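Section: Multi-chain targets

For targets with more than one molecule, the full set of components is provided together so that the structure can be written out for the assembly as a whole rather than chain by chain. Components appear in the order listed by the source. The example entry contains two components.
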Amino acid sequence: MSDTNANSTVAFVRHDTIPEREPPLGERGLIKWLRENLFSSVTNGVLTVLSLWAIYLILAASLPWLLNGIWDAPSIRDCRTILDGARGGCFAVLTERWNQLLFGFQYPSDQYWRPTLAFILLFVAFAPVMFYKLPRKLLIMTAVYPFLGYWLIWGGSIWVPVFAAGGFVAGYMVYRQFITRSFAIAFFGAIVGAFVFWWIADFITPVLANLIPIELEFVKSRQVGGFMLNMILGVVCLSLALPLGIILALGRQSSMPIIKWICVVFIEFVRGVPLITLLFVANVVLAYFLPPEANFDLVVRVIIMITLFAAAYIAEVIRGGLAALPTGQYEAADSLGLDYPQSMRLIILPQALKISIPGIVNVAVGLFKDTTLVSVISMFDLVGMIRGPILSSTDWNGVYWELFGFAALLFFIMCYGISQYSQWLERQLATDHR
Amino acid sequence: MSDTAAKVEAKASAISDQVAIEIQNMNKWYGTFHVLRDIDLTVYQGERIVVCGPSGSGKSTLIRCINALEEHQAGSITVDGTLLSSDLKNIDKIRSEVGMVFQHFNLFPHLTILENCTLAPIWVRKIPKKEAEETAMHFLTKVKIPEQADKYPGQLSGGQQQRVAIARSLCMRPRIMLFDEPTSALDPEMIKEVLDTMIELAEEGMTMICVTHEMGFARQVADRVIFMDQGQIVEQNEPEPFFNDPKSDRTKLFLSQILGH
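Its structure, encoded as tokens over all components, is:
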């Protein structure tokens, strides 16, 4: 009101617009941000300074170690010679043992392209599942991948995975034949159909393999190791545990008492036992119970155990999601005449799974990290490789920080990726506008 | 609502002598609690019935028994010639012929309005998607919200959601519609839009059973009003005599309380 005319009383007319001015210096840009976020009070100011000091100490200790690291040396002794007392990491172990860390120490080195290709194709296979807006035709790749991936990593005749896939196709054909009559007949018919196909294929495979020998060098499971083994276990177990967990969660809600109790007992038992115990069972005890000619691959046994373990946890997470749905959703689905499989698939599970995403991701991340436990039953996964062949070699004995830091970094990248994806997915699926 | 006379006329002519629902000596217990006692009810094709009564009287349970959302333990229910038994095929058949509208709408929040309406026709009736969408748009236009088709239920008001729920049921082309307190969860100003939709439906000759406290609605469209208390049918009559000259004391008390203010 400084420019009001002194002669007038209360009447006031403005003839010109006040030009826009910038806010005061302390109220804009960086200064404003600093003041509001870091120095809003004395306590906060002190804490900010202390935090900066702590960050400085950490960086001062770790940065020279990181930046001054040696990337090219044949052994830890040479590393120390090059460093000559200066502070620095001996990352040469990573470059020198790179292939061992990734593929294990027994995988034939001229075949490294196979798991690498399988790893790249993994993303192609997962893409249509993870990003549901991609064309649905890509799902063919997802369906083919388990067999292709197996063939790439383990090798052998191509007819083995082809006939394995054929069994599923045969089962599906039987299912299609009978689904109009009854779900139960179709379901069990499909299982019988698949096994009959595999039984016949068992005779045909060796003949075909001789006639049309398309094959890759066969790699034994014992030769599979390194981070590749963690990836195999993590991806396979998670892909199997999710559907199994859904079935267990639905089974636990079933109105049929026998199914319900089977699921409850299974879930409670598996959750009550440490994973390590199950792995020892897979490694040692299972051999006593199985007939001697049943030569079950160790990797398969471990996959079964980790899958069962994760499935029990996922089942409980999904049960929480199912319980969170209002009963009105079940009733609305019922009242429209949808049958049980339809109402579950179209109405209940899409909502329950969405609610369960954080819990499922929790289990997934945990499961992926737990795959390192197989090093305890002398499988050479990433941690097994580090603890075993690499650290115990005379060349690299004592390079703990660099190796375990690398393992931590790899797992962090994977787990952080899973976490970020899940958050993106949750945002995509937020349609309820609560 | 000026042309009441015309409506009364339409009302009288719509009812056929074909039985839509036949309930005989039906009983239901929750554990040991006897919720429905010796219910006998015959509903004719085209008839509009309003069920009222105090809360806990079993009126919701009664209509939920008709499409087997609740199981009954004794007696028989026959819907459109199909006997309601524990056979899942029969239950699914009846449910696809009987539409139901709930107090809390129960739309599927993860699907758009259009998907809500086309889901059951596509999966239960096996109607091609395009045709189902045309039907859905027809009924959404009928309940006056075609422009909301691509929104999600959470973006709509309560009254709009309830009208979608009605449209969703109609898309199955049901022969009978059940309404379970369709306006009880709505704001007063939204009640009218839902009731208008229901009145329109009634005028087209849809067989309807409505559990509701909207006595004005009952007066206007019902062919028969049923009063329930303590799990039994206490009184039933045409609306005029029911409201003007109730016979039972319990009915009188109920009506005086509900119409008193």
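The longest helix of chain B spans residues 188-203.
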